[in-house]
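Notes from the pairing session

We agreed to fold both candidates in a single pass and log them together. This is the raw record for the first candidate, unedited. Please don't reformat it; downstream parsing expects exactly this layout.

Candidate A
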Amino acid sequence: MRKRDKKRERRELINAFAMLLQIGLAMMTCMAMSFGIGFYLDRLLGTKYWIMIFLLIGILASIRSLFILTGKFQSPGSSRKGTEGKAEQGPEHGSEVKGESDAGSKKDAR
């Protein structure tokens, strides 16, 4: 039993590290791409403000990416699994529609 606990703990630690690495890479990629675009536009146009504008856009995009990766950006009624998640919802979600469809099928069966 202890080996199972150690394996589970090790797997959770690896998953946590992978999520941390994924979040860091996603944030750095968003900021680096936008910084590069702003830098290129500044050099092309001979200005000095595009780099700041695009860096701000990159920071906002990285924050959005952070929320998406952690799952806090979803609306309360949506699920990650799409249509599969509808079957897993509790009685407070979609019970009226299910009841109506069941009533119709019972009438057809008579």
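Candidate B (folded immediately after A)
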Amino acid sequence: MTIEQTVELPASHRLVLDVPREIPAGPIILTFTPVPAGEDIGMDGECRLDHTPNAETAAAIREGRAMMRGEIPANRYHTIEEMLASLKK
């Protein structure tokens, strides 16, 4: 099983990874490959799909990217109950 995801590496060079439970515990191989300068990886605000996201989706994408850049704090939960309680607020 291979999972690939392009992420923005912050200036701190610190990443936090949440690995899907479908990946079995035990040894894994992490590979880091820099994206060549100028290559389109879909991080520039353009949607690479055949549609334009609506305003709510576009706002959520911008918020997620701001969290990845460390501009705004991300919500972190240790249990599903914590997350559900936050969503109910």
